[in-house]
Specification:
Largest sheet: 8 strands, mixed
Radius of gyration: 27 Å
Shape: elongated
CATH class of the largest domain: Alpha Beta
Distance between the termini: 90 Å
Strand content: 25-35%
Structural class: alpha/beta
Oligomer: single chain
Number of domains: 2
Number of helices: 4
CATH topology of the largest domain: Rossmann fold
Number of strands: 8
Length: 225
Amino acid sequence: MIESVKIESMKMRGNVFCIALLSAGLLAGCGAARPSKYYQLTIPGESARAADPAPFPVTLLIGPLRTSHLYREDQIVYSMAGENMGTYEYQRWAEPPVEMLRDILLRELRGSGQYRAVDVLRSNSRGDYILYGRLYDFKEVSGSALTTRVTMDLELREAKTGSTVWTHYYSHDEPAEGKDIAAVVAALDRNAQRGVSEVKSSLTGYFSAHPIKQVNSEQAHGNVQ
């Protein structure tokens, strides 16, 4: 009889212990829930469109930017001493960096008014030139001073021949004006805008130095469908 009571008592204590562990786990899970914060780069508005009385008679298509899986996701990337890299769990981009950069390129080049048309490359698109690129870095760099690094390589290919006629390499470290994530995002935004501005200026220089006749572009059927 005594042994039976002891066994029942042990079972009850075991059940209470299991329930306590389960409750603690549930509470810990609830306590760990933390809202994510999302950030985005400054995308030029359509109102920024300029009126050029004599645009280059070409249609530009913005192709995909190749990159590692880190920049195809929405988490903000950081790097430390050596080759160590990581991502913030609760600090994220509204869109992956490659998509935001493509949108900035599209808006800036279209808004310049220097081209007959600028659009994103699609399966049914037709254009005179296609802009391709690769994004190598888009991250926070921790050290004695907090900076951000953007590195990308772009090339312009002639649609008819597939030949590369222009390339531009951009790599810049932009210091953050603070030590919080908001300062990092602001520095990455400035860095990205600077890079896109360089690309736009370099493309203008190329087409200014290589004038294209209107008739040739029309014969190439370069309109976007």
